[in-house]
Amino acid sequence: MFSTGSKYFFGISVLGAVSFAVYMLLIGESAIGATALFGLVAAAGLLTALVLFTRDGDAGEEGVAASTAAPTPSMWPLIGAIGAALLLVGTITSAVVTLLGIVVLLAALVEWTVLSWSERASSDASYNASLRKRLLNPIEFPVLAAVGLGVVIFSFSRVTLAVEKSVGATAFIVVGALVLAAGVLFSLRPNLKRGIVIGVCVIGAVALVAAGIAGLGVGVREELVLAKEEGHYTHQECGAEESEHFDKLPLEVISATASVDSTISLVDGKLVASVQGIAGEQNSITIPRSNPTNIVFYNASEGEYRLVANLGKKMVTDGVNEDVIQCTQLIPQGAKQLLTLTIPKPAMAGKPYTLTVPGLAGQSIEVIVP
Amino acid sequence: MRRRIIGALAGVTTTLFLAGCATNAPQDTWQPKGPNAQKIDNLQKPVFAVAGIIGVIVTVAIIVAVIKFRDKGQPIPHQSHGNPALEITLTIIPALILTVVGVFTFRTVFDLAKTSDTEMIINVTGQQWWWEYDYPVQNEFGITQPIITSGQLVIPAGTKVLLRQTSRDVIHSYWIPALNGKRDAVPGRVHLNRIEADKPGIYAGQCTEFCGLSHANMRMEAVALSKEDFAKWVANQLKPYTPPAENTLAKEGETVFMNQCIRCHQVNGMKRADGTPVIAAPDENVVSGAAPNLSHLMTRNTFAGATFDLLNKSCREDVWNADSESFGAKYLTGVTEDCLNQSDLRGWLRNAPAMKPMYANPALLASTGGKYRGMPNLGLTESDIEKLVAYLLTLK
């Protein structure tokens, strides 16, 4: 009654059903866990029925005799052993090593299993090889491409972090142009010797990886180290400017510009607000309580200015209150900075929350928290 | 046996088909009640017709092929590879169909994204598992102070209303099918969604992005009022808080509210005995940092994220089934003691998590530092509940 394939899915169905029962009994009712296991049972059951209905896709009707030859030597057991070793080492060193071990082990298991199965699929070695390729190439090629891309990105990022900003940008343009030129050349000259193409690619890859390793050895450039030490990525200063190394155009980060509620601009000494979705200039912005809200400060005036959010007072000890303020950096003309406000409570009557610019009297934007 | 199977399949298909013909379906995507939804309807009906015809043709072709050419032991027919004329034809026809659909789809998408002629703005904030609506100051509508409400979005009919949507916790999606398509509410982002209702009435909706345990209970209702009625609604929302009269059950309820509910729920204008304003602190008790503002609660028809009705069944039907001329007056009556859905409101106060699944069991809140997702069981006594109901009824 049961075909070979259906037994496999039937087994998963039964195992899933038992797991579902045990889960419900021992762990209790959980929408996610129970749903996942029930989904597994349903999916495996469906596949069982499908495989039974199609009789394993008539796989046995190809009329090719099974192979009796001994399996060919393979590197995968060795790679699997390396993966297992990494997995063990990782448990006492680093989670990254563990993860790497798991990935290597899983890859070796899949490759070795499919290789062994394909070698016994028929007595025709070339047919067996094509069978293996048909199964694994759709997985191998994207994975290898992703890994290759990751190596390229990681290597190049080490280089750009190590060298001066302008040098990094120039290197990016030059390398990109070289890759493009090589690609165009290869496509225009399809008869180019295979050895030349492979040689160019290998030399380029080795050079990039070597540059990445060198960049890793040199470390990130001093400016970034200092900026990190100054804590520029985690705080905004409200007092005298102490930090020197910071990105003066942080809004070049796409994620920041894509999530802006409103923009506060300082134009000709006047503070105005433009709110997403609302036409015209505003003198107040309304933001929901307890909701992180991104505001951009744009300095269009001559000189360096910062935006200060005055968010009332908070009690630090009994009877002692201190001002709650948040600030952007001092930014030069033409620069923008992001300020994320999370205001848990509405302002007290007569004491509104405001956005102001120190040194600019009479200019403020009211922040209304309903 | 085969006849039975075919009969059963035909029965199921007919039932499903007829289920789509229900007229009393408030979330029916085929019954637009505003220009934005009408634009979508104008697109989806022809597209559905084209897709339906193609679907029927393909299904019939597959069934015929499966039955006619099934394996009956005949030899494998001659296998041919490639038929350029047929392949090009079968590529061009779908491409042409998709191009025509694409042109009209893009036009509709751009039409719906238009915000330049917006007349009114409302900020919409999603949270597990309710929606908050706040109305920024808009003097042209008499909104001289921000208004905040939840559960029911009140809008003037015939007005282009722009919803500025965001979320405090996870991704939600705002969808009132009769007024427009769905639009996600994403934390940290403001998404724009415009709605407009042709006539006064109530239009139901449902969160359409899975957002956790009570996603299915995260409902919403848009209430459209005539411009005159909307002005009355605004005026009422701007009325200052009136504390209950001394020595009444409601006054005792106010005390219970201040001791229990105020930890999360704000009632604007409420003051302590010493005159200091009472400010709720949901940020200290709720993971997402907010709880519904209960100012003028009894002007709404729903509570608990529009999951439950504040009006009892007959009063609610009276409002829902009112014609557009009399609807405004009925809605603005609000919730009277006679119309209050005592059963659900008392049940909610007695044990909220038992009525709506929420992460509110103190024993299971280690991962959130003791903060709730939803309303916990406050362990109120029946006497407290009696007082609270009396007090809540005063929030008109």
What would your notes on this structure say?
- The complex is a heterodimer of chains A (370) and B (396).
- Chain A is of the alpha+beta class.
- Chain A has 3 domains: 62 residues; 78 residues, no CATH class; 119 residues, Immunoglobulin-like (Sandwich), CATH 2.60.40.
- Chain A is 51% helix and 15% strand.
- Chain A contains 9 helices and 9 strands.
- In chain A, the strands form 2 sheets. A 5-stranded mixed beta sheet of chain A has the order 3-9-8-5-6, with no helix packed on it.
- In chain A, a hairpin with a 2-residue loop joins strand 5 and strand 6.
- In chain A, helix 3 packs antiparallel against helix 4.
- By secondary structure, chain B is α+β, with helices and mostly antiparallel strands.
- Chain B folds into 2 domains: 73 residues; 279 residues, Cupredoxins -  blue copper proteins (Immunoglobulin-like, Sandwich).
- Chain B is 38% helix and 15% strand.
- Chain B has 11 helices and 12 strands.
- In chain B, the strands form 4 sheets. A 5-stranded mixed beta sheet of chain B has the order 3-2-1-5-8.
- In chain B, a hairpin with a 2-residue loop joins strand 1 and strand 2.
- In chain B, helix 5 packs across helix 11 and helix 9 crosses helix 11.
- The longest helix of chain B has 34 residues.
- Chain B is elongated and about 95 Å long.
- The model of chain B has no long low-confidence stretch (mean pLDDT 93).
- Chains A and B meet through loops of A and strand 1 and strand 5 of B.
Hey, which two chains have the biggest interface? A-B, 26 and 34 residues
- Name the quaternary structure: heterodimer
Low-confidence stretches of chain A: none
Gross morphology of chain A is extended
Mean pLDDT of chain B: 93
